[in-house]
Amino acid sequence: MEENEMGKNKKTEKSQETTSTNQENNIKSNVEKEASKADTEKKEEPKFKKAEPKVKKSKHIVAKTILILIGIVVVLYFIFVMRNYYIINQIKAKASAYKDVNNFTYHTKADDFESTATQKENIARLDCSRFGKNDEETIIWFDKNTGEGLIVLPNQKKATRVRFSDVILNAPFEYTNIVMEIETDAKILYTWIYTDEFDGKECYVLCYNKNNKEWIDKETGLLLKKETDTIGTSEFTNIEVNTVDEVYKPDLTGYEIVNEEND
User: Which CATH architecture has domain 97-262?
Assistant: First the structure.
């Protein structure tokens, strides 16, 4: 009997130990699960926090892209200005050969008139025909050495004696003028330059805007054509240098002559 009771007691003790162990294991397991769950939640938290750096990164990319585009525009504009600088200085260097020219002739055709200019040794003459209802011819002759000048109207047989301080007939030679050089240097910054042909010559076209353009002979640097929004289109052809033998003074026989001082 005693042995049976002792056996039962041992079984009961073992059962209690087993139960206690199981409870401890369950508690331990629950603790581990809670800890694991907490770790998982901690690991998952950064996923939501990383959304903010993505926005910053996106802004950084946009800013970087804008800076790159600005850099490209600056480089392209620099190339544009340097190209203009090279071309315009080429034009001026070639035109400078005519800076002191004092023997030349050229023909001008504009929207409402045509003229032929001739000069030799400071004596010049301009024969002009104006278009319109009353076609009119005018001859302007002057001697820069003496200041003597004539304005002649052949159709009316009238002439006026005038005093000229100076008359400049340098239209095709514009780029030899110092003031024009300064103005042109400023135009380097915004002028669009392309090539075209005029009067059988290859030209640079300096386009300042839609209504203001100049055709410059690549070979000589001389102005061959000009378009402006104020005076329209002017074309300069038959340009010759050092070929004029004489500039003829108008024959006023049979003309009514008036002195400007008496008017």
Answer: Clam (2.50)
Q: What angle do CA 56, 58, 62 make, to 5 degrees?
A: 115
Name the pTM for this structure.
Answer: 0.71
170 φ/ψ angles, rounded to the nearest 5 degrees: -115, 25
CB 118 within 8 A of CB 125: yes
**pLDDT 10s digits, 138-189:** 999 999 888 899 999 998 999 999 987 666 677 888 777 766 776 777 888 8
Distances in whole angstroms, Cα of residue 154 to Cα of each of 107, 149, 251: 20, 16, 10
Q: b vs e for 37-57, b when ≥16 Cβ sit within 10 Å of the residue's Cβ?
A: eeeeeeeeeeeeeeeeeeeee
Residue 127, number of CB atoms within 10 A of its CB: 18
What type of residue sits at position 116? T
